[in-house]
Amino acid sequence: MSIRTENYHQSTVQLAEACKASGAYWPHCHRALEQYGVTSICHLSLPFKHEASLHGVSKASLYKTSHPEEWQSAVGQQSLDYDLSVELITTGAQVVFWHEIRHGQPFSQLQHQLNEAELDLGMNVGVSVMSRQFEASGGITGVGLCFADMKPEEFRRIWAEHADRITDTTRLLDAGLIDNGLREVIGLAPREREVLCYLAAGYRVADIAKALHKSPKTIEKYVDSAKLKLKASTRDNAIAKALVLNLLEE
Amino acid sequence: MLEYLNETDPARFWSSSQSALANLGVSSVCYATILSRTEAELKGLAPSLHHRTTHPLEWLAEMERDNNFDYGLTLEDLDLFLTAPVIWHEAHKQGLNSPDAKRLYEFDSDLGLAVGATIQLSGFDGGGHFSAMGLAFQDAGEQNFHNVWATNETAIRHICNTLDARLRSTQSSLLIKLSRREKEALTCLAAGYRPEQIAERWHRSNKTIDKYIQSAKIKLKAPTRDHAVAKAIMLQLISP
Fold first, then answer.
1. Going by DSSP bridges, is the β-strand pair A126-133/B86-87 parallel, antiparallel, or unpaired?
2. What is the count of structural domains for chain A?
3. Does residue A137 form part of some domain?
4. pTM of the predicted model, to two decimals?
5. N or C: which end of chain B has fewer CB within 10 A?
6. β-strand partners of B49
7. Which ranges of chain A would DSSP assign to H, the alpha helix?
């Protein structure tokens, strides 16, 4: 396939400026990656490594993906739990090529099921790149890039030539999403963020209600919706995640 | 002189930084920090403050008894970032202090804490933390203090800034010493476990787990569990 550089030619700097001006990192970076043959992507933030082994990556991480719906539902909205590239990234690999890790035996029936679905969808070629590692928690963020229906040789050729530009773009996407408090991923409302800040500073729901001139019921509503967005099982968990991902900074 | 900067063991880091300060004429110190302004708005200054000191034990006992660590200051006072040090004996003479602070100064003098300076290391500015260091110069005396200070201020500030950074991150156990069990309980809470689930996991009673959480809350000066977890993460005491 040919690289459509003439249609969508942007240097990384121009791309960064366009992202920053609009605050929309996801669509800009997505389009920029498409010119290298990327068909769909997934950005993942895993605040705590420990939590992934307890509840599975899908539940423990906050992610946004443009992978086909069939992939997402292949094993009941838990595809990330059985994604080997994610597992390798969480254990410290910087770059994982999908077609290189498919040779081994699947660990389980569900793993097999996911592999089959990925083959059906032509998702066997792609690359996962680690973006950052949280020193305090062992958590990571990363981006998975799918080159659907591409032959491994073709992918290798593109990667050999454009690896720098592609990884720069994934880094830009990651930095933008995280610096904007994952607004494009989970969209914590200003009130929800504010209430989490107060909880982290030791306020009880009643104290917050008083400080914000709202009813305790309204505050509870904000807490619950924040927990839902952060996929947190408890209030402590919601606050811990928000702190590690820097969601509470202004 | 700056070898201690590479020291990773908290106790050795603390004692070698104290020797470095002693070489610059400092006889004892008190480091104090408040992690968030919002916290201090709720609880007041002294109850939000974490400290570590080498001042005499009588001084510490007096401060803790009446929770006098704030010396009568208010949150608004702390918002005015002080680039110049507060020289203890000068502030006292200028009568800037409240009657309470005067009584404290006399008490301090009796303990050999008459001559010294308090420097601010960081200020709230939005979401930040506040920290300050009180430095006693017992041997210098009022006459000699200014000479010692003029010569050594840069080096002293450098050491204090390093202490500030380390005490709030990698060496925070110097400020708050949590037991292994307390840390593990907070880690599980951060990871989304409820206390009952921790009890089940560890084959302990709910009461035992509550005890760990309670003692951690007290050490962290945290009125709520959320706050204890948040503080422990910010101070890197736990890594869930």
1. unpaired
2. 2
3. yes
4. 0.84
5. N
6. B34
7. 12-22, 25-34, 49-55, 57-60, 69-72, 84-90, 109-120, 152-179, 190-200, 205-212, 216-229, 235-244
Q: Are strands B28-34 and A62-65 parallel, antiparallel or unpaired?
A: unpaired
Edge-to-edge order in the sheet of strand A138-146: A62-65, A40-48, A138-146, A126-133, A95-97
A232 neighbourhood in chain B, CB within 8 Å? 192
Are both A67 and A124 inside the same structural domain? yes
- Pull the structure tokens for residue B235: 């101070």
Closest CB to B42 among A138, A207, A237: A207
Judge: A202–B127 Cβ closer than 8 Å, yes or no.
no
Q: Do B38 and A197 touch (CB under 8 A)?
A: yes
Checking DSSP bridges between strand B49-53 and strand B28-34, what pairing results, if any?
antiparallel
Chain B residues whose C-beta sits inside 8 Å of any chain A C-beta: 36, 38-39, 42-43, 126-127, 187, 189-194, 222-227, 229-230, 233-234, 236, 239-240
CB contact under 8 A, A236 and B225: yes
B2-173 sits in which CATH class?
Answer: alpha beta
Cα–Cα dist B212/B131, whole Å: 28
ipTM score assigned to the predicted complex = 0.84
Domain spans, chain B: 2-173, 178-234
A125/A228 same-domain check: no
* CATH of the domain spanning B178-234: 1.10.10.10
Range of the domain at A201: 190-244
- Number of inter-chain CB pairs under 8 A, A vs B: 89
Q: Are A177 and A170 in contact (CB under 8 A)?
A: no
Digit-by-digit pLDDT tens for chain B (240 residues) are: 566 777 888 999 999 999 999 999 999 999 999 999 999 999 999 899 999 999 999 998 888 887 777 777 888 888 887 788 989 988 888 765 667 777 778 888 889 899 999 999 998 876 689 999 999 999 888 889 999 999 999 999 999 999 999 999 889 999 999 999 999 999 999 989 999 999 999 999 999 999 999 999 999 999 999 999 999 999 999 987
* Closest of A109, A105, A104 to residue A78, by C-alpha: A109
Q: Do B227 and A201 touch (CB under 8 A)?
A: yes
